[in-house]
Amino acid sequence: MKFYINGIRRGLGKYLHDRLNVVETLEECDVFINCKHDKFKQVDLLYKACELGKRVISIGSYASDWIYHPKKDVFNYAVEKKALRDANSQMFDNGHEVCCLNLGYIDTERSCEITESKMTCKSVLDNIEWLLLHPHRIKEITITPRDKIHDDRNKDDSLVTSEQLRISDNLYDYTSMYAAQYKQLPNTYDIEIIQREINTLKNMHGFSGGQLMLQSLNGEDFYTGLFQLDRMPEGSVEADFNELNIPDDWEMARFIKEEGLTRTRLIVMEEKQCYTMHFDPSPRIHLVIKTNPWAFMTDNKWKLFHIPADGHPYYFDTTKTHTAINSALEDRIHIVGIAPLK
Fold first, then answer.
1. Is residue 131 within 8 Å of 99, Cβ to Cβ?
2. Longest Cα–Cα distance in the chain
3. Half-sphere exposure of 43 (CA within 13 A, CB side)
4. What distance, in Å, lies between the first and last C-alpha atoms of the chain?
5. pLDDT per residue over 32-52, tens digit each?
6. Which CATH number belongs to the domain containing residue 14 in this structure?
């Protein structure tokens, strides 16, 4: 997709120019981002782009809602942005692929003296992406900042804004809306006890990462049946791995028995790992023992969701395409078993 952007010397226009696949002329582009405010020229360019059959996203302003200014008799900026908004509505109703993105203050050089809340250029780019991917036509949308943006620093000493942190926090709030492939189960298990049991297994087997079988064909083999199904002994199926390799009175054993699991494995996903996209022949049940804010599963719609170490098992329909990601600098530990047929 090729973009033409006007007003690229500074501010939002420059930010977008530096991150998108930009061409030099309006005629060459697929999408015109009508960014530069220069009196009524945004209106003229909108009309020209529509004549050329281009898709247009015009950068409007929340000020177009309030063309009266208590300190000015003539508030030209608001009127000019109101004209852009009306022209966009006219073109939209005539069938053109146009949208007016009305924004509040943006954190750029032009608004450095503004002490009110401001949104980041990145958030504007995120919303442009959302508009382009949306399956339906959107005439206009108005977005204003929620709270004051301040710079904070993460462990890598890179700048992160409070707006970006809020987006990442909100990801966890919406995971249950996005992820249709998993659900929390009612039983609970003592994660601290299980962590001690895992340490015992690590000491016994010199185990530090990867996988270890908690069930086997004979109750003694910690290694046969690991990883892909094609590594299982010929003639065996997952349900055949039903003998506990661990003491019957362990908390892990209680989890396996109460949930009716077979071929249960201890899986340590080491730092900075991602599995291939894949699907399994049967659903799984996961019990999260150790996690971090940057460990995720995906569903078949490629939505990320984070599973907490809250003592609850989680049922996954892993017969649909999915993967797991641990993008942190520490291990992620799950106990994973084959869910019983319902």
1. yes
2. 88
3. 14
4. 47
5. 999 999 999 999 999 999 999
6. 3.40.50.720
